[in-house]
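CHAIN AND CONFORMATION:

***
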Amino acid sequence: MTQEVSISRELYDHHDEVSTKFELPAGLSEETVRKISEYKKEPEWMLQFRLQGLKLFQELPLPTWGPDLSKLNLDHITYFNDPQSTQNAKSWDDVPENVKNTFEKLGIPKAEREALAGVGAQFDSTTIYHNLQKELEEQGVIFLDMDEALKKHPEIVKEYFMTQCIRPNLHKFAALHAAVWSGGTFLYVPKGVKVDQPLQAYFRMNKIGFGQFEHTLIIIEEGAQVQYIEGCSAPKFNQNSLHAGGVEVIVKKGARMRYSSVENWSINTYNLNTKRALVQENGVMEWIGGNLGSGVTMLYPTSLLIGAGARADHISIAYAGKDQNQDTGAKVYHLAPNTKSIITSKSIAKDGGITGYRGLVHISKKATGSSCAVECDALMFDAISQSNTYPTMDINTDEVEVVHEARVGKISDEQIFYLQSRGLSKEQAVQLIVNGFIEPIVKELPLEYASELNKLIELEMEGTLG
């Protein structure tokens, strides 16, 4: 019996013809880095930071583990493209029509009108729209694109930008990100402010052979609370693209942060994203993610629990079909007493797709009274697909509680027969099993807030049997 399950990409694989305001030729050099910084009119310290990143990138090796990156030719990547004809708009009406049409198809303005406290939209290297509800501005919330934040709040950016969470020497693609980052989101929530509605940013790659390197910096002060949603997509081309963004989250004492993302890049995209959070005393960090679409993904959101009583929850779903390798997971460092983490990872593989959970739980000698629970579930649709688990537990004290559980399952003829005997068709039976499998993850995504995420994740798998 063959089961066909597919995810419709028709909405995301379209490509729009958009004129270019400024573009650098493909390839990476010191001249490329200097021209990016010059075009953005950045301060000297940021230029020097970029050049140091470039030096580290040239020195650090490619990862020798995980998916094969040999077909990613970094000399063929375009590292900067400004496609817009206007600067960052505060009103949706001011966005160029051809760029606006792309985001209209994805539901961005509708989502803002109906449910969101603020929205940012990036097209290739440039943020084309950013807006925040006035009442949040009056409470001191800052929600800007990263380039604008560098100009308006240089002292905050200089203090936190790749100095605490992601350092340029972390790995080769972190160094590359430091050298060529562009756009992204800056979010600052003052002490005690609780933002009831989520804020969202959407990142779209439109150009062939392009590299997108947006930087997200989020600072949640003591006792504050916020939800942030990130969506990503790209059209399908016959040339590889690269996404190597960076996400840094600072969760201060007693603060709470929920970061939700759905990354639905096209099959020709290498998704090599880096996401890390620093969580202080009694702070809570929640990572909720869906990964599908890209040909190769290496993504391991990381929580550094540096304060007593800090907590991290990691919830993720990965989908891999033909010619896809989704290597995802989570890393949690317990560095203080009574810290807690829960990692829940689910994956679906079909048509020879490869999914992998790659995780690290580190508990230091100081982290007495801490606990961690890891649960990995994989669902495979055929004998040619793969599901791999690479858990690492580095436990340095006996006064902790650690649990790891992993399961791999396959939809069987018996399950299909049982559900058919209850009046379902074969197709409905497969759909029901898949929905039940992913339901614990999907229910945590803020679909009720952002209509475009309903379209983007498309985890309601429409199937046929034959």
Summary: The chain is about 20% helix and 35% strand. The CA atoms of residues 287 and 314 lie 5 Å apart. The chain has one domain: 3-299+411-465.
